[in-house]
Design a protein that fits this description.
Layout lengths: L13 H19 L5 H19 L4 H8 L7 H7 L2 E5 L12 E8 L2 E8 L4 H7 L7 H16 L4 E7 L6 H5 L2 H14 L4 E10 H5 L6 E5 L3 E3 L3 H8 L6 H8 L3 H6 L5 E3 L10 H19 L4 H13 L13
Parallel strand pairs: 3-4, 4-5, 5-6, 5-7, 6-8
Antiparallel strand pairs: 1-2, 2-3
Helix pairs in contact: 1-2, 3-11, 6-8, 10-11
Length: 328
């Protein structure tokens, strides 16, 4: 993905798109004539930046959901080519086959050898069919676990990039043990004796995301979402109307800021103004800095400390302390 080439604007970004179209027209006119209109172009660019800042300073949960699914948003393969170097993919679960919805292999980041495991959605019809729209099957989760255990054996840190609407719900996936594969990943990841850093880069959907999300550090990109169910699915269940997804998104508390406030993640990776798809190289560099920092912090811990801290962290989630009843 090249930087700053996204020209797809969501409904709430339409005023920005109109300004960018005017800037493009003026640039074209400038190239075809001797008229110097650089001053006007500069003024419109400043106006576009200010407008983008204003719009993005008050995004709703639903608007952030749409951003997390933006067609030009960077996917895992984009980050594999920029944040990491020397990626060598490893295939197969050694039981059934190779699920392309989950990619994994050896790589380097900031001079450190790591095992990278990620979910990929793909762009365009051909790629999306190949990657099953980012919805892993059981063999994908079993491949991920095989690579995690391999990393543990050679004391390599593990980085996971999460971006899925959820695990594949098809009949054949259930026949091959989808729920068991996810549950086993949760169990095994808690006990891994090597550093694990997880990043939600787009959609973090239900158990399909959590199966790669049990880490010593769990981070989210600023405009990513993380939820037990999609807003559309929640609205369909509660109100029998998927059109009420916007209302469900507000109620679910799925944005990075809300989840950070709940104490369910350890940090938010800031995105450039307008989102990672507008300035990808800047977003990738920011992610690299955050990942390297967390990996170096975790490198001083013993295998026993890493496993114990991860266990306590996740077992402590959702614990409710009942206070004294009123009037007692």
């Amino acid at each position: 993905m090249e930087a700053n080439l996204s020209r797809t604007f969501l409904d709430f970004e339409r005023p920005i798109g109109e300004l960018m179209a005017k800037i493009d027209e003026l640039r074209l006119l400038s190239n075809r004539s001797d008229i110097n209109i650089a001053t006007e172009i500069s003024r419109l660019e400043d106006e576009a930046r200010n407008l983008t800042t204003r719009i993005f300073s008050k995004l709703t949960a639903w608007q952030k959901t749409l951003l997390s699914r933006h067609p030009d948003r960077p996917y895992s393969t984009d980050y594999l080519q920029t944040v990491f170097t020397g990626f060598r993919e490893l295939h197969g679960d050694r039981r059934f086959g190779d699920d392309r919805a989950i990619l994994g292999g050896l790589a380097e980041i900031d001079g450190m050898d790591v095992m990278v495991i990620c979910q990929e959605k793909g762009r365009g019809t051909k790629e999306r069919v190949l990657y099953n729209f980012g919805m892993p099957r059981p063999e994908g989760y079993r491949k991920a676990l095989r690579l995690m255990k391999l990393a543990e054996k050679f004391r390599l840190p593990i980085i996971t990039l999460i971006d899925t609407p959820g695990a594949y719900p098809g009949k054949e996936a259930e026949e091959r043990g989808q729920s068991e594969a996810i549950a086993r990943n949760l169990k095994e990841m808690v006990a891994l004796r090597t550093p694990v850093v997880c990043v939600v880069i787009g959609e973090g959907g239900s158990g399909g995301a959590l199966a790669l999300g049990v880490g010593n550090r769990v981070l989210m990109m600023q405009y990513a979402i993380y939820s037990v169910i999609s807003p559309e699915g929640c609205a369909s269940i509660l109100w029998k109307d998927a059109a009420k997804a916007e209302l469900a998104a507000e109620a679910l508390k799925i944005t990075a800021e809300e989840i950070m406030e709940l104490g369910l993640i350890d940090g938010i990776i800031p995105e450039p103004i307008g989102g990672a798809h507008r300035h990808f190289e800047e977003a990738a560099e920011t992610m690299k800095i955050h990942l390297a920092r967390h990996l170096r912090e975790l490198s001083s811990k013993t295998p026993e400390q890493l496993a114990e801290e991860r266990f306590k962290k996740f077992m402590g989630m959702g614990v409710v302390l009942e206070g004294e009843r009123m009037g007692a």
